[in-house]
Write a structure and sequence with these properties.
Chain B: One of its GO terms (cellular component) is nucleus. Chain B: Belongs to the RNA polymerase II subunit 5-mediating protein family. The structure holds three protein chains of three kinds. By secondary structure, chain A is of the alpha+beta class. Chain A contains two helices and four strands. Chain A has helices spanning about 1-55, 95-145, and strands at about 60-65, 70-75, 80-85, 90-95. In chain A, the strands form two sheets. In chain A, strands 1-2 form a two-stranded antiparallel sheet. In chain A, helix 1 runs antiparallel to helix 2. Chain B is mainly alpha-helical. Chain B folds into two domains: about 5-35 and about 125-305, no CATH class; about 40-115 and about 310-330, Helix Hairpins (Orthogonal Bundle), CATH 1.10.287.370. Helices cover about 65% and strands about 10% of the residues of chain B. Chain B contains 13 helices and six strands. In chain B, a hairpin with a 2-residue loop joins strand 4 and strand 5. Chain B is elongated, with a radius of gyration of 28 Å. Residues about 160-180 and about 210-330 of chain B have low confidence and may be disordered. Chain C is mainly alpha-helical. Chain C has a single domain (about 1-125), classed as Helix Hairpins (Orthogonal Bundle). Chain C has helices at about 1-50, 70-125, and strands at about 60, 65-70. In chain C, strand 1 and strand 2 form a beta hairpin. In chain C, helix 1 (about 1-50) runs antiparallel to helix 2 (about 70-125). Chain C starts with a helix and ends with a helix. Classes of the chains: A alpha+beta, B mainly alpha, C mainly alpha. Chains in contact: A-B, B-C. Chains B and C meet through strand 4, strand 5, helix 3, helix 7 and helix 13 of B and helix 1, strand 1, strand 2 and helix 2 of C. Strand 2 of chain A pairs antiparallel with strand 4 of chain B, so a sheet runs across the interface.
Amino acid sequence: MDSAKQDKVRKFEEFVDRRLKPDLVHAIAQRDKVFEQQKIFSDLRRNIENLEKNSVTSLRTLVNLGSEVYMQADVPDTRHIFVDVGLGFHVEFTWSEALDFVAAREEKLSRQIEEYTRLIASIKAQIKMVCEGIRELLQLPVTEL
Amino acid sequence: METMGTVTPISSVFPAEEAQKASRRVQDTIAEREQQLDQLKGFINDNVSVINLVQKLPDETHHNIMVPFGKAAFFPGRLIHTNEFMVLLGEGYYAERTAKQTIDILKRRGKALETKVESLKAIMQDLEAEASFFDATAQESAEGLVEIREDYVGEASSGAETAGYGKSDSTSSLEVDARKAAVEDEEYTRIFSRIDELEKEEEEAEKANESDEDERKQNELDSTIREMSVHQEVRSSPVQAIDAAKAPEAPAVSKDGSSRRDCPPPKSSTMNKVLELPEEKKKVQAPPTTSNMAFTGSIIEHAHNIGMNMPEQQTGARSSKPVSRFKMQRK
Amino acid sequence: MAAVKELQRDLENKANDLNKLQKDIAKNHQVRKKYTIQLGENELVLKELDLLNEEANVYKLIGPVLVKQDLAEANANVRKRIDYISAELKRLDATLQDLEEKQNSKKEAIFKLQQRIQALQAGKGKA
């Protein structure tokens, strides 16, 4: 009886440690990745909006060549922008096209974030549940006394 | 020959599992260092390719490229002023340099990275030695080896020092004199390798003391923490057992690199008392000086190594602010 | 028996104190590590600045803006920073020493307490 209980507790604990916790860590890491993407695209949107607002058609910038070495670069015409659409493809857009694309992408990303958030919450809830179960298992003999 | 010392099974001093645990701990540290090493090598490779790039860029007055705009977009554009580079010196300082000057800077950086790699390798070698020592101890312990302590009573010099070391098979050492000749060679080599290791540790620890840790650690050891029931969180209990018994490196490993080498000298010399023969002792003293200087030096240096993480930080900085940097350059 | 209990409570308190001290020491190590890294970086910068000729253009990244700086000024700033960090490190060393002294005296006290408890218990056992 007692050993069976202990066995059960051990199994529960294993489930939490080997399954639920790694799942949680994984889900959080995934969500962080999406957050990063979200930031990239919102930055892009803001930058394009800035270009529009100030009607910048050419610009000069510093390009990182690696190891923190920069060189000046000249962009003669900013009205055409190549945006990363995934899988290594870059599509040539005008500003307004780019903004439309970014808006769509942002929406998709925030949906993903929501999903992950829900997943994380449910894993957390499961962990809590199992922990509660373990506690009950261990507490029972105490209350019986 | 009458027995004049004590015989202790090694397993009572270092239980096999403890030694194995210590060994595993060291292995973990080695793995960590290996990662650092890979990272450094990555930096070196990056550095080399940037040097090549910087060298070639001024060959033309401009290069057509896709100019990155944030992380997800590009503009078609071109590199201009191909002999002018902005180089980060660190701490947010940038300098305007020509290709040649930039290459000089990068080469200096590369050299610094190389030295870091070298010292990291030295550390790893040391750790490997440690690990194999623990493994050997674990094995000996498991095999039921015994340690024999005898006070050396012989020539005048011995009184002062009592410092020969030795551990040997129960069989062979119990009848040392009789079988001496036969097993001598084999035994010597083993003894000496052990001695070397012990000496290394001692020296290391001494250095550590000099550099910034104080001898109070020794008291700690002497008062044999292992007796204490108090649990100290900072160092886990398995280490403690070993640590009190002998090993200087277990704690050093368990903590972050910056810290203390608990010093073994008092312990290890008392632990390993004289086996016999004065000539042994002479040899004991000879090797450590030569064989250990190099590696101890680097260890200490490394315990507090400054730059280890710096390149990491730079990359961090780079990735975290590309957009703003971009923005600020806009005209 | 009451005496033993008393001693044991005392022991526990001391053990807690020791724990706190050890945490402080660990924190000290961490901060020191950070500063040491910064010191290293600053020294590297200084070395490179020293190698520049006087009319070289030097900029400092302040927030998102690259601000042009006088080389001499940059040099002075980095030096100041190095001085500051060195002083900080020295201060940390002093604190560390202090902490370790405290730690050791605590350890000794604990050890003595344990011995007393053991002695008392042994005495009880025989009696």
